[in-house]
Amino acid sequence: MTRPVERGPSSPKPLNPLTPLNFPKARTCALCRTPVLSVAHCPLLEQLIAALPLNSMYAHVISPCSHQELKQALRDLGKGDLNNIPAGYRTDAVKGAAYRAIRKSDLPMLTTCIRDFKVRASTKLLCEAAVDWSGDPAVVGTLMAHGARVNGHQDERPLAAAAQKGNLLMLRALLEAGADPMKPIGEEGETALHYAVRFGRFESVRALLDHGVPADLPDQQGRTPLSLAEKGLVMHVQTCGMQPCSRCEARIQIRGELRWRLGKSGAASAPPPPAPAQPDPASEDSSTDVEEYDGTEASDVCENEYDEEGEEEVIDVDDEDDSHEL
């Protein structure tokens, strides 16, 4: 006889973290975007309802044809009026909107902020675009049309900002717009090429060199891009935890590119080697004449010396013979 198996109460199954939880969707207010149970909580909606005639309030809410009108009225009321806040707060608000449009690469919104809300197209705004913009490069022309200077000023150069960040799109757009890559920055006199080398931006370095920037351009302290590249590579290798990383390879490529450009420019600027001198027949004849005029040749001199020695020996022999005979 088998004993029945007793089963305890079933335990809840453990939740799978990958399984989405089906929570009830909360309604959000069309104006303040907060989860609500009713749209009547919003003060803006209360103002709108209070502004409606009493006899037509329920008709507007119930009537299906007025739903779009109510939504449009809520949007118009939610826009508000910037003239109701002080000028300082209003300026900060519109500048924040302009910077957000730059980070999102939203050219229509940026144009609206400049044209309608009177945001000044300053050098700082252009530098922000040079760093963060990733959309249509026509933003450079838009900012320049509203008064932005493509070369900025001594302390802020949009081209240097793009080179430092490695934003190749904006770097080329600024160069095409007429930015001068030779403009110095700050008291040290570094250029956009120095910034690109210092921060290890290989593509920016190549774009500037292709544009015609000399590879041996020194700053106010005499530092060239090649010296900065070599020093930066040594410092990065000493502090890098995983070698070789992408930044190591970029700095090695920068050093090689600068060495190759310097070697190429040095070979082009070096004077050609002198051609070997061709012998002049007239000069050879004159030298031969001079040698013949100065004295006899070596063979003649040796023969003369030998003859003299032979004569002396002959004379000595004769003397000996004469003495023997005597």
TrEMBL record:
InterPro entries: Ank_Repeat/CDKN_Inhibitor, Ankyrin_rpt, Ankyrin_rpt-contain_sf. Residues 264-326 are annotated as: Disordered. The keyword Lipoprotein does not apply. The keyword Membrane does not apply. Residues 282-326 have a biased composition (Acidic residues). Keywords: ANK repeat, Repeat. Residues 270-279 have a biased composition (Pro residues). SMART domains: ANK (SM00248). The gene is TANC2. This is TANC2 protein. ANK repeats lie at residues 154-180, 188-220. It comes from the Eukaryota. It comes from Symbiodinium natans. PROSITE patterns: ANK_REP_REGION (PS50297), ANK_REPEAT (PS50088).
